[in-house]
Amino acid sequence: MKHFLTFVALVFFGLFLALFVRRNQNPENDSRPTLRIYAASSFIKQWGPGPWLKEKFESTCDCVVEYHDAADSVSLIQRVKSEPKNKSVDLVLGFDQYDLEMAQVGLDWKNVKVDPQQFEEPVRPLLSRTSFTPYDWGVLAFIGHRNADKSLPSNTDDLLAPEYASNISLQDPRTSSTGLQFLLWLIQVKGEEKAFEYLQKFNSQVKAWGANWSLAYGLFQKDQVKLTFSYVTSPVASLKENPQSDIVALPFAEGHPVQYEFLGIPSTCLNCDLAEKFVTLMLSHDGQRVIMDKNYMFPVIKSVTKGTMFEAIPEFKTIDMTVIPNQAERERILKKWSQVRRSE
Do 138 and 233 touch, CB atoms closer than 8 A? Predict the structure, then answer.
């Protein structure tokens, strides 16, 4: 009888313990503050910098970091605008320079305090927008395979060669910031009229306009196209996976566009202090190193590339993308691009 009562007591204790653990593992019962962050898939997926930043931050903040996935910058902004006040987002990551006007329409943002002296020289002028802070940047270029027998394209006109017919993948500028970069770069180097004349010829060279960077680059990785539009850092990513990789970024005579990625803290944030501390982590040497290694983008803070593969990347001629269209102009250009696509 004594053993039976002991057994029953142990069973009830086990059930109580299991219920206690389950209750405390339920996020709804966690009394710690939650830092809600909206970011692109590439940032928060297992292979991106998000998991490391989350683990590092949670180890000291006595809080929970909660990521929310957005497919692209446009949906990112729309989701922030639609959030109810009791679930306000605390930090938004992934705008580029062409999204900033859209992000400011109907939304207020807190000023983010940073030390300009920590930033690389080319990035410092971007700090004039105190509501948005750059956290990485990249130079865009066409990517191909090194070929000893044939010369690779060295300007936009070379892309019209017969061998590239239906052999190039790009991103749709309506849904992808990378695709928009390509379109605006083309307009900048050729002028709008000649750029759209060029697109009429170029469209037959494009196998697919992917909805995002991953889809377009995936076609290249699967050898379904010879060229794709990506970043000059893409060969570094390939070399890390395969030391024998022959992937190269192609320098173009016209020069190359530059993309900057920004973060912002909405004025409606519920855990603003935590958001600012997370930004501090992102802009620390360790945070920038992880963002560089996982996002394959250049860091904005000094000396982070020292002694890494990124330090050996050749310098590409870049152009100052001085023409940043407002929202109405952007919609006009994209509508014109859509008309060209439909006329094929």
Answer: yes
Neighbours of 235 (CB within 10 A): 21
| pLDDT tens-digit series, residues 28-82 | 566 899 999 999 888 998 999 999 999 999 999 999 999 998 766 677 777 787 7
Is the distance from CB of 264 to CB of 132 less than 8 angstroms? yes
Assigned token pair, 3: 């053993």
Which CATH fold topology does 30-137+259-312 show? Answer: D-Maltodextrin-Binding Protein; domain 2 (3.40.190)
Task: Name the residue type at position 297.
Answer: M
Residues 6+ apart with CB under 8 A from 46: none
**First and final CA of the chain: distance in angstroms?**
87
* Superfamily holding 138-258+317-342: Periplasmic binding protein-like II (3.40.190.10)
d(CA 254, CA 240): 29
Three-state secondary structure call for residue 260: strand
Q: DSSP 3-state assignment of 126?
A: helix
> Token pair of 40, please?
């692109």
For residue 23, what pLDDT is reported?
43
Residues of the chain with CATH 3.40.190.10: 30-137+259-312, 138-258+317-342
DSSP 163-214: GGTT-EEEE-TTT-HHHHHHHHHHHHHH-HHHHHHHHHHHGGGEEEEESSHH
Of 192, 196, 248, 262, the closest CA to residue 220 belongs to 248
For 126-185, what is each residue's pLDDT tens digit? Answer: 898 889 999 999 999 999 998 755 789 999 999 999 999 999 999 999 988 899 999 999
The residue with tokens 């305090």 is: 113
What is the pTM assigned to this prediction? 0.85
